[in-house]
Amino acid sequence: MSRLRRICVYCGSSSGTEPVHRAAAHDLGAFLAQSGIGVVYGGGNVGLMGALADGALSQNGEVIGVIPRALMEKELGHSGVMQLHVVGSMHERKQLMVDLSDGFIALPGGFGTLDELFETLTWLQLSFHDKPVGILNIDAFFDGLIVFISHMSQKGFIKAEHAACVLVENEPAALLARMEAFRPPELGKWIEKMVAEGR
Questions:
Q1: From CA 66, how far away is CA 197, in angstroms rounded?
Q2: Is the CB of residue 41 less than 8 Å from the CB of residue 19?
Q3: What kind of architecture, by CATH, is found in domain 6-196?
Q4: What is the pLDDT of residues 152-178, one digit of tens each?
């Protein structure tokens, strides 16, 4: 049984220009539902967000949306999800999404998706949570970002163990397997120390 009961998916409220991205969002939602994993997401019924939710719902999966009141009209809150939390701000949205989830996956998106991804990674780096953070690199969408993360690490702004926390795969099953096996850096070092000392 998966220890990841719910996964938060960050993705665009736009569908983008490539049909493969929307198809991948729908397929990820369906895959998570088939795996018995609930989906937490931004609550909209448009763009990749809507495709993700529809994919999970097509397999009778649990879908929980979190949307700021100011975006209900713009992102069109999804009426088909089991729970739709309407919150007062983006900060409340991000905090509740983290609280409800056991792991995080980024799909293609824009500034908002990157904001959510990097805030979640920053909180992991600072040990505000110990949950796995993954990128589903559909059609090489995130290649440039992955190179830049490596560049920041090489220049000394991100520790190697923190850069390694960014789990990247091209297929949902492979990404989920890595997320299941994830150990945060400090916990990993503590376990290694205990083993070395024979405890």
A1: 45
A2: no
A3: 3-Layer(aba) Sandwich (3.40)
A4: 999 999 999 999 999 999 999 999 999
- What's the distance, CA 189 to chain centroid? 25
Phi/psi of residue 28, nearest 5 degrees: -65, -45
Provide the residue ranges of all domains of the chain, joining segments of one domain with +: 6-196
> Which residues lie across from 137 on neighbouring strands?
none
- Cα-based angle 70, 67, 97 (whole degrees, multiple of 5): 140
Indicate the DSSP class of residue 95.
H
Predicted confidence (pLDDT) at residue 75 exceeds the cutoff of 80: no
For residue 193, the surrounding DSSP H or E stretch is helix 185-196
CB-count burial class (<10 Å; 0-12, 13-18, 19+) for 154 = exposed
Q: What is the pLDDT of residues 83-92, one digit of tens each?
A: 999 999 999 9
